[in-house]
Amino acid sequence: MMLWFAAHQGANPWTGPSPDYPSFASIWDGRWYQIVALTGYPSELPITDDGHVGENAWAFMPVYPGIVRIVMGLTQLPWEIAALVVSVPCGFGAALVFYRLMREVLDRRTALFSVVLFSVAPVSPILQVAYAESLYLLLLGIALLLVVKQRYLTAIPIICVMALTRPSGLAFALFLLLHLVHRIAARSRHPFSLSAFVRLCIAGIVSAIMGFAWLLIAWGVTGSLTAYTDTELAWRSSYVGYGPLVPFEPWIDGANWWSERWFGVGIGAIALVPLLALVVIGLLSRSARRLGITLRLWIVSYLVYLLAVFFPQSSTFRLFAPLFPIAGAFAVPRSRVYRTAAVVVSLVLQWAWLWACWQVSGYDWTPP
Question: 20 to 30 A from 112, CA-CA: which of 182, 234, 238, 325?
Answer without folding.
Answer: 182
